[in-house]
């Protein structure tokens, strides 16, 4: 029989006793609740189970029952398999519900009642259930998919219609945040390649997420409205230093809303409660399309949410079709013409990039790309050094758009407080098509300086008159080999200049102990990192210094037993010093 539902109950919370009796009790409970109307006796039947039992024992831990259920003159045959087992000392039972003639549909609720009743009967005996297959839940999700698709695209249609008619074809460049634009660009190549018939169609709203649509509904464009600030004034007079992040926060507080799309546009066509409804719709949509389980209660709730949003969007589209046109006639035609003239180069540039699948970046975008790449490099390098407690890496400092040089971050060697500075200098910045720009990275320390280049090749596009479209000539890229060389070079510098003394101690320890020598570290934990690497052999480091993290620990040698112990504050360089064990010994004498 086809398996319709398959789930596990994991880790029993009590002894189950005789497994046959345990399963038979479940079947009897289903009979009492009216979910089994006719038992099918399987043959041959093991005599140990009794001639009236619906159960057969396939193995010592596998039990199968077959039965029929009749409702409204419809008769369906069923099979339930219970397979008990143990995995990694964890007991479990796999329950499979199968039927050859049951018709899955939204209106047929029997399978949902059957599976949930079984789950509820046994749930107190197990720690948790784990669902493997559920064709009943799947049919509910399949029924919801078309409605979700239709409502979601109505939202896209409304945004496109209102924004294009009110602000012209350049509204995307004028209003949409960079985060959403970048998301669209990252998906552009795949979208174009899989749908060649729509390769030259503006698909921007179709390739962003539903949450981004909600962001456009509520978008507020802000402008800087500067006011006097004493901190900025002191900063400009070189009296204090303000970090770029803090400066951004101060300036952000001086932003004023210049355009509120919800207040100025969408609230004319949608109710005040629509945004809350749309957020619920987004949550329900993600639940379904991400293949999470649903029952009929959830199905009805999600279906009502979809219908509510769809109904309001349809009404808004009808209203916008009547109103926006007149507004466009009075105001937008002139504004659209101005925008098209001002943005003609930008629009052409975007079309070229869209068709060719290549980015041709301007100077600011090239610097921004360098910055993103180096910030990711900094993050990855931090992860690579997470086991080196003796090295500390400062936060990454972003590259300003107008900066030709500056500091990126510093690396501190906590054993002797030496600093390695990682700085940058903009060697070449050229935003011409097919031309290379480069950023020079300088590693400067006490003993040695090193330089590395990180290069970017700008994209190049040409027009193919035969095919009637733009074609790529040179692919834009940051050279990954440059980042690899920088990573290897920085790693080699740290290995050469910032010795990992802990590794050296671990390497030497075997020979020291084999030759009868004394351990170079005390057998007490560091007050900072908790590892037992406090130096007592000054050939490795300062006495009392942790060779793992560099922290200085105040320790003494007990004058009686010779053991090391952490200072308590009562020790003296002139008098004998004793550990707690020896002090306890003296008290007992």
Descriptive keywords:
TATA-Binding Protein; 16 helices; alpha+beta; six-stranded antiparallel beta sheet; flat; 21 strands; seven-stranded antiparallel beta sheet; 589 residues; 4 domains
Topology:
Elements: E1 3-12, H1 19-32, E2 38-40, E3 55-59, E4 62-71, E5 74-87, E6 90-98, H2 110-122, E7 126-134, H3 135-167, H4 171-175, H5 178-194, H6 210-217, E8 220-224, H7 230-236, H8 244-252, E9 255-260, H9 261-264, H10 274-289, H11 296-342, H12 344-356, H13 363-384, E10 391-393, E11 405-413, E12 418-428, E13 436-444, E14 449-457, E15 460-464, E16 469-474, E17 477-478, H14 480-497, H15 501-514, E18 521-522, E19 534-535, E20 555-557, E21 564-566, H16 580-588
Antiparallel strand pairs: 1-6, 1-7, 2-4, 3-4, 4-5, 5-6, 8-9, 10-11, 11-12, 12-13, 13-14, 14-17, 15-16, 18-19, 20-21
Helix pairs in contact: 3-6, 3-11, 6-10, 10-11, 11-12
């Amino acid at each position: 029989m086809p398996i319709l539902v398959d789930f596990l109950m994991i880790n029993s919370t009590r002894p189950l006793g005789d497994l046959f009796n345990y399963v038979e009790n479940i079947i009897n409970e289903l009979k009492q609740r009216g979910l089994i109307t006719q038992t099918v006796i399987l043959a041959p039947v093991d005599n140990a189970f009794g001639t009236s039992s619906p159960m057969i024992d396939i193995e010592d831990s596998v039990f199968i029952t077959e039965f029929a259920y009749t409702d409204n003159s419809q008769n369906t045959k069923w099979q339930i398999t219970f397979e008990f087992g143990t995995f990694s000392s964890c007991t479990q039972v796999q329950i499979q519900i199968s039927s050859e003639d049951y018709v899955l549909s939204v209106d047929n609720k029997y399978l949902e009642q059957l599976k949930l009743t079984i789950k509820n009967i046994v749930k107190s005996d197990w720690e948790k259930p784990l669902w493997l297959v559920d064709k009943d839940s799947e049919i509910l999700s399949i029924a919801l998919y078309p409605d979700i698709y239709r409502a979601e695209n109505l939202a896209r249609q409304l945004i496109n219609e209102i924004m294009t008619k009110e602000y012209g074809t350049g509204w995307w460049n004028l209003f949409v945040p960079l985060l959403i634009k970048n998301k669209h660009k990252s998906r552009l190549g795949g979208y174009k390649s899989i749908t060649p018939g729509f390769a030259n169609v503006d698909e921007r709203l179709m390739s962003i997420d539903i949450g981004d649509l909600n962001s456009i509904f509520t978008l507020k464009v802000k402008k800087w409205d500067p006011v006097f600030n004493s901190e900025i004034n002191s900063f400009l007079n070189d009296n204090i230093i303000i970090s770029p992040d803090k400066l951004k926060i101060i300036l952000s507080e001086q932003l004023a809303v210049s355009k509120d799309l919800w207040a100025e546009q969408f609230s004319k066509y949608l109710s005040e409660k629509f945004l809350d409804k749309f957020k619920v719709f987004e949550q329900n949509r993600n639940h379904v399309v991400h293949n999470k389980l649903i029952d009929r209660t959830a199905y009805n709730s999600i279906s009502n949410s979809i219908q509510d949003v769809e109904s309001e969007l349809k009404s808004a589209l009808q209203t916008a079709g009547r109103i926006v046109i007149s507004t466009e006639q009075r105001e937008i035609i002139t504004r659209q013409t101005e925008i098209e003239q001002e943005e003609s180069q930008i629009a052409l540039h975007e079309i070229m990039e869209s068709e060719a699948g290549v980015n041709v970046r301007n100077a600011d975008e090239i610097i921004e790309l360098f910055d993103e790449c180096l910030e990711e490099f900094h993050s990855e390098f931090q992860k690579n050094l997470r086991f080196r407690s003796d090295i500390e890496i400062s936060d990454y400092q972003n590259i300003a758009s107008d900066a030709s040089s500056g500091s990126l971050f510093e690396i501190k060697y906590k054993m002797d407080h030496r600093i390695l500075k990682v700085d940058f200098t903009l060697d070449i910045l050229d935003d011409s098509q097919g031309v290379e720009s480069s950023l020079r990275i300088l590693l400067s320390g006490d003993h040695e300086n090193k330089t590395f280049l990180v290069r970017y090749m700008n994209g190049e596009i040409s027009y193919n008159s035969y095919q009637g479209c733009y074609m790529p000539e040179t692919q834009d890229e940051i050279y990954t080999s440059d980042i690899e060389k920088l990573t290897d070079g920085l790693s080699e510098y740290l290995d050469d200049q910032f010795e990992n003394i802990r590794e050296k101690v671990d390497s030497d320890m075997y020979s020291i102990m084999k030759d009868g020598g004394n351990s170079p570290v005390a057998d007490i934990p560091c007050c900072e990192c908790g590892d037992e690497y406090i130096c007592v052999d000054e050939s490795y480091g300062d006495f009392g210094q942790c060779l793992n993290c560099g922290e200085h620990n105040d320790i003494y040698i007990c004058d009686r037993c010779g053991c090391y112990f952490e200072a308590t504050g009562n020790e003296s360089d002139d008098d004998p010093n004793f550990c707690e064990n020896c002090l306890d010994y003296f008290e007992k004498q």
